[in-house]
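Sequence only, no structure available. Ideas?
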Amino acid sequence: MTSHDETVFTNARIVLEDAVIDGTVVVCDGRVKVIAEGTSRKGVDFGGDYLVPGLVELHTDHLESHYSPRPGVRWNVTAAIQAHDAQIAASGITTVFDCLRLGADEDGGFADGEMRKIADALSVARHENRLRADHRVHLRCEVSAFNVLDHYADFDADHQVGLVSLMDHAPGQRQFQTMDQYILYYKIKRGLSDDAFDAFVKRRQDASAQYSDPHRKALAQACNARGVTIASHDDATLEHVDEAIGLGVRLAEFPTSIEAARASHAAGMSVLMGAPNVVRGSSHSGNVSARQLAQAGVLDVLSSDYVPISLIHAPFILAEEIEDISLPQAIAMVTATPARTVGLDDRGSIKPGSRADLVRVRRGQGEVPVVRGVWREGERVA
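Reply:
I predicted one. Tokens follow.
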């Protein structure tokens, strides 16, 4: 869009932070200029479709599935990024924090340096204007891994990094408080014998006991010094939440109990749950459901996690099925609140002066939404 050109979107159901209005939005130089009720005689006629802010995705592992589509297979990294980006944008996501895993946890299957390679390719793709969405980096740090600090050192000067999560997937910790869940994830799926599984569990528990606490503190200190938002991961107990508060955590990702979610929310953290959890109606790992947290008033942010289209689907479900959640409140869980949580105050809302990151959505009662158009800073990208 050339300088001072205006784009007009009219006859739209505009989802603001506190209301839905039938009206018109004028965009100029990549920013929202005017919001008005009523229909304009010029502009793009939305025919009553919704106009919502561009979605802000804080936690998605989806890039990994394009880079490594089968065990042991590595796709061209630029092609993988572009395929991921295309699906992200077509789902209405205009800002995305791509998860890169740090620390060998015997589950990732990635070699030293591969995450740095992906981050470098993201930087080049952005420089070459290959990307539809605004891509940033979310480092998923396995604090029980012996080499997580070495891996983090590869990113300590990378300005793409805007979010770091601290996680411990050892048995008996956080997500895997019961061995039933751990057996399903690691023994059955890997086909391990009893002896091999017992040895695996002992290695993971010993590593957690040795490394988790010092690594968690060191990473939090480094992030706080850089001004990078810190997320806790799979908090299960009040003690976990107290620890997160002390570390300066602003985002509580996937708490596994209602008690931890309530305490995190009360402490001012944004509580994040998976949009697939909302769409499916339950957690795939048997932990607390996102709908339960929504009903309790302690759900703040949704993440597409492993299904990008779920991020536009889930808010409509919450607004329809949870009595105390309006559509503006539900849409804020995927726009304004995640943006503010990571310090991006220029996006996430449709208001004068904000970035013109906008999504046209058609959705009938009970239907899967259709994303019909996506604009980033006023330029159509999908």
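The chain has a mean pLDDT of 92.
Hope that gets you unstuck.
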